Amino acid sequence: MVTKTEETQLNRLEGQVENGGGGAWDYLCFVRKLKVRRSDKVLKYGLSILNDPKKRSSLGPEEWTLYEQVAIAAMDCQCLDVAKDCINVLQKRFPESKRVGRLEGMLLEAKGSWTEAEKAYLSLLEDNPLDQVIHKRRVALAKAQGNMSEAIEFINKYLEIFMADSDTWRELAEIYVSLQMYKQAAFCYEELILAQPTVPLYHLAYADVLYTLGGLENLQAAKKYYSSAIELTGGKNTRALFGICLCTSAIAQLTKGRNKEEKDSPDLQSLATAALEKDYKQRASDKVSVLGSALKSLKVSS
Amino acid sequence: MGLGFLIGAFGVLILAHAAFSTIQYRGLLKILEEEFSGPPVNVIVELLLALSFCMWAALTAAGKFLSVHHHSEENRIVSLPANMDFLIFNHRGKVFSPGTDMRLKH
């Protein structure tokens, strides 16, 4: 989870390194800790450290983690010979290592030789059938080939054993959403919210899926989850505020024929609208008129 | 905060001085062969002074308080980490040519 202070710190370090102010090793450690994907910068600054023998020796035993990080970044930027060299260095140092075996499998994947990568992963799994990382790489292999049903099958088998892995549930939810299987995606997001209830982004994604599914009950639940996302972010999430306006107008459209037995929160929409207008005035004051006309059209259709 | 530390150090010094003078007083009583009923009045005054100084320093020289709310400006979650375990390399970035000077030089 990347918090706001960590994001500002990351941007500051990035700016500092880009303008030649040093601190590349701090930046690389921070990227590794936050698990963000900044492969081009990692490759550039990692290579600058690794190619300088003085800086390399000052790292000590953390040199090998840097080799691994640069190898993965190189594969992401499609510099396969850099990756091959890094993996060779790691292979010489750690001959029988599973981590290096995984890196070799990833290199085969990056080259596009799917069958050899599959063979490499299967042989690694033979020695250690409960290796979580290799199972996840098999899923990624199936996903890279475009074989989504096989990826889903692998993830389901993995989740039967390792049920508490939130990252995998999130990956499964995203695959289902990409295949438009929204009911299953909603189930995955429910698991995520159960495991980590204070992360507002899961609430937001769940509300989005419910809103997409449609139907009166789903819309009411979506409104509740948008509200909880607003509460968890202290009102700073614009998407959740928009979500509330859309849900209210969609619910009102569905219940137009019936008599209005109970309107549980008539002022929720007006509060959300007021918050949106204030936010826009503060951050993008030239777009306030666009916002006003969009909200008006929502109210007209309701 | 500097003043807090100074006052705290001053209070500790006064405490040490009070301890020293009590030991001296006991030595004096041993010479005069009288009973040791309690420390003299000035030592007690010194002890109370040192206590008040140290308490004041401990309360004012506190560190920086961090926010606890999960929706405060520093703590709010901005983005989720990219799932690095499920990274695929089969993306559109493949067509961008890497810099030709990207090489591991040994």
UniProtKB/TrEMBL annotation, chain A:
Protein's membrane topology: Peripheral membrane protein
Keyword Membrane applies: yes
Cellular compartment(s): Endoplasmic reticulum membrane
Membrane among keywords: yes
Stored Pfam families: TPR_EMC2
InterPro entries per record: EMC2-like (IPR039856), TPR-like_helical_dom_sf (IPR011990), TPR_EMC2 (IPR055217)
Alphabetically ordered keywords of this record: Endoplasmic reticulum, Membrane, Repeat, TPR repeat
Main localization of the protein described in the UniProt heading: endoplasmic reticulum
This protein's GO CC annotations: EMC complex
Location of the EMC2 TPR-like domain: 100-209
Segments passing through the bilayer: none
Assembly with partners or alone: Component of the ER membrane protein complex (EMC).
Function: Part of the endoplasmic reticulum membrane protein complex (EMC) that enables the energy-independent insertion into endoplasmic reticulum membranes of newly synthesized membrane proteins.
Family: Belongs to the EMC2 family.
PANTHER family according to UniProt: TETRATRICOPEPTIDE REPEAT PROTEIN
Name of protein: ER membrane protein complex subunit 2
Annotated organism of origin: Hevea brasiliensis
TrEMBL record, chain B:
UniProt key word Transmembrane: yes
InterPro entries: MMgT (IPR018937)
Subcellular location: Endoplasmic reticulum membrane
UniProt keywords, alphabetically: Endoplasmic reticulum, Membrane, Transmembrane, Transmembrane helix
Cell division listed as a keyword: no
Coiled-coil zones: none
Pfam families registered for this protein in UniProt: MMgT
Signal peptide, first to last residue: none
Residue ranges crossing the lipid bilayer per the database entry: 42-66
Membrane topology of this protein: Multi-pass membrane protein
Family: Belongs to the membrane magnesium transporter (TC 1.A.67) family.
Quaternary organization: Component of the ER membrane protein complex (EMC).
Protein name as it appears in the record: Membrane magnesium transporter
Organism, as annotated: Hevea brasiliensis
